[in-house]
TrEMBL record:
Species whose genome carries this gene: Chaetomidium leptoderma
SET domain location: 504-615
SMART domains per UniProt: SET
Family matches, as Pfam families: SET
Stated name of the protein: Histone-lysine N-methyltransferase
Compositionally biased residues, Polar residues: 115-125
């Protein structure tokens, strides 16, 4: 290898080793921040390797280097520029977690006084101690600290720390809420079985008559005849009365407010019906415009029909579009659930059609299956509701007549069948009379009701009032008058707040496992709520038939046993099936001196079948199997 090649190799080695090492040391050097004008001094010596090892051995431990020799080359570089703000790496690199960006140093500039003069030694420099430099250096820039999102911090832990709440997991699946369609259907059942009276002939005449009477000059009309303001029979809200007349005024205001509320409810139902029908007329008009103008697209035809409707209504286009979307929801509900779903929808229909939560094919199919059941309840409880449909050209005649429980519905959505037809195969002479109160079998008891219970002895109750009847359970006074009654054991059935038995939100349905008919809850019944009273023929001495047996205490002592038979007369409690895991039970209560049997809920959801436990006395010796299909069934193989 020639001399020039050796020099080139030496230059490359010096460039790679010395320059790279010095640059790395300067990058991590933080001591320059304490100097006013830092400089880098480079000195070059040529020595014998053996002599250098001996010098190192002699000087080991004192840390002093005696510089008696003169360097061949000495250079000085200004480091003041390294204290300017460093240039950071691009954001894409620095933003990664756990990465510390490396600073970029500016180029070094030689000082003006740099000179290769080798005379640098002095007594002061010979005795100066070199500062030891380690390999570890603090980072010049703050590292990015990545916190664990699952970590928990607690500033102070007391000696007795209470149990902490479970950490809220934002990614957890939310609890299932009732679908909007379920709320909508629940509102329909509530309206049908509530106190709404949809009598269009009387309500609309009163409402329209009041509106007609309020036109014209009010001052002239008031001076001529104030009776013209309201139609006959509608009345007026009475003014404030004194204490002597407060009772009668309050009753009249109650009657007037009830009639106005019912008339307003009827007009609201009529409004929804007309708006749903208008959507059909709009679509028909768009088709007509498209057929007469083949060159126009369907979108342009709808636009033209919309602008024409805006002109007739006097509304802005945006307002018209918003209303049309809601009205289109009314029409979709009508197509699935029929007109009855619109009339008895309640106030929730506007919100449902505005936000359209649950407007899917599955929900509409569910509503379509409920349509016959809703129509049965509406036609039998509100026979005149279809008269509202006359304004849209529909027939006012009801499809179903009679008592609500004269019809047996099907869960699959098929048409209801008469109750009698479901028993003809067992009893060709079957007939059933629906009762609101139990009737006494005069051939057995005469006029002596066996359910009569003598009042409790004096001082046994805490009732301060002297009344004829006292509750045996709560000890409070019982009366049919609200001012005198203080017993609220079962207010839906007894007392001033009692409801008619036919308005209980239940339906008779056809079971699918051979149990014939059953009773289904249309609305939820909270635990302890009375569903209905077990009524029928109060008799005695019947055998081999299903009866409710009970006994009462005689006035002179002893018990008297009686039976309640529902074979030909009764109410919906006749259709309650047995279950070894029931959701209801029968409970006795004494009301107005007579023992009553009440069907009480244990907690029933809407759509569930209502069941009770017939008890062991019913199944003892009975030659049939239980079909409740419960895992805890006690009578799979027949009676005991």
């Amino acid at each position: 290898m020639d001399f020039s090649t050796q020099l080139e190799s030496l230059r490359q080695s010096l460039s790679d080793d010395i320059v790279g090492h010095v640059t790395e040391v300067l990058r991590n050097l933080s001591s320059t921040e304490r100097l006013n004008r830092p400089v880098l001094r480079l000195e070059l010596f040529v020595e014998d390797a053996d002599e250098q090892r001996n010098d190192d051995h002699r000087n080991h431990g004192d840390g002093v280097v005696h510089a008696a020799r003169r360097p061949l080359v000495s250079r000085v570089f200004d480091l003041s520029g390294t204290r300017v703000p460093t240039v950071m790496t691009p954001p894409s690199m620095a933003s990664s977690p756990g990465v510390i960006p490396e600073p970029v140093l500016p180029p070094l500039t030689p000082c003006a006084s740099d000179s290769p003069t080798p005379c640098l030694g002095s007594q002061q420099e010979n005795t100066r101690r070199r500062k030891g430099v380690g390999g570890l250096r603090p980072a010049r820039h703050r590292a990015v600290v990545v916190e664990d999102v699952d970590s928990q911090r607690q500033m102070q832990v007391p000696a007795r720390s209470f149990p902490k709440r479970a950490k809220v997991d934002d990614d957890a699946v939310a609890a299932l809420q009732e679908a909007s369609l379920g709320k909508f259907v629940a509102g329909i059942w509530e309206q049908i079985h509530g106190g709404v009276d949809l009598d269009p002939q009387s309500s609309l005449e009163q409402w329209l008559g009041a509106a007609a009477g309020s036109t014209g000059n009010a001052a002239v009309r008031a001076s001529e005849n104030t009776d013209r303001i309201t139609p006959p029979g509608f009345g007026r809200l009475p003014g404030m009365a004194g204490p002597a007349e407060a009772s009668g005024s309050f009753n009249r205001s109650n009657s007037f407010c009830r009639r106005v509320t019912q008339a307003s409810r009827t007009c609201r139902a009529l409004e929804v019906i007309v708006q749903a029908r208008w959507v059909e007329h709009f679509e028909s008009y768009v088709d007509m415009v498209a057929s007469t103008n083949p060159s126009m697209s369907k979108k342009k035809c709808r636009k033209a029909a919309l602008l024409e409707a805006c002109q007739d209504f006097g509304w802005a286009e945006k307002d018209m579009r918003n209303r049309m979307r809601i009205w289109a929801g009314y029409n979709e509900i009508k197509d699935a659930g029929g007109w009855v779903a619109l009339v008895f929808a309640g106030n929730g229909i506007y919100r449902l059609c505005k936000y359209r939560v649950g407007f899917d094919a599955e929900s509409m199919q569910t509503l379509r299956a409920l349509r016959p059941r809703i129509e049965v309840a509406a036609d039998t409880l509100h026979p005149t509701w279809r008269q509202l449909l006359v304004v849209v050209g529909e027939s006012p005649e009801p499809r179903f007549t009679g008592h609500p429980h004269d019809w047996v519905v099907s869960p699959c959505g098929s048409d209801p069948v008469p109750l009698r037809s479901t028993y003809l195969s067992r009893d060709p002479l079957f007939s059933f009379q629906h009762l609101d109160e139990s009737i006494l079998d005069a051939s057995v008891w005469g006029d002596d009701d066996p359910r009569w219970v003598p009042p409790p002895p004096a001082g046994a109750t805490a009732c301060p009032k002297k009344t004829a009847f006292t509750c045996h359970s709560c000890g409070q006074a019982q009366s049919e008058f609200p001012k005198q009654n203080a017993c609220y054991c079962f207010p839906p059935l007894f007392g001033a707040q009692k409801r008619a038995a036919v308005q209980a939100p239940v339906q008779v349905f056809r079971t699918s496992n051979g149990r014939n008919n059953g009773l289904q809850a249309l609305a939820p019944f909270d635990r302890g709520t009375a569903i209905g009273e077990f009524v029928g023929l109060v008799t005695s001495g019947l055998q081999d038939v299903d009866v409710m047996s009970s006994s009462s205490t005689r006035a002179g002592g002893g018990n008297r046993t009686y039976q309640i038979w529902q074979g030909r007369q009764g109410n919906f409690t006749r259709f309650v099936n047995h279950s070894c895991n029931p959701n209801a039970q029968f409970q006795s209560i004494v009301w107005m001196g007579l023992e009553r049997t009440v069907l009480v809920s244990k907690g029933i959801s809407a759509g569930q079948e209502i069941t009770v436990d017939y008890s062991d006395s019913y199944w003892r010796g009975l030659a049939k199997k239980c079909l409740c299909s419960e895992s805890c069934c006690r009578y799979r193989t027949g009676g005991l």
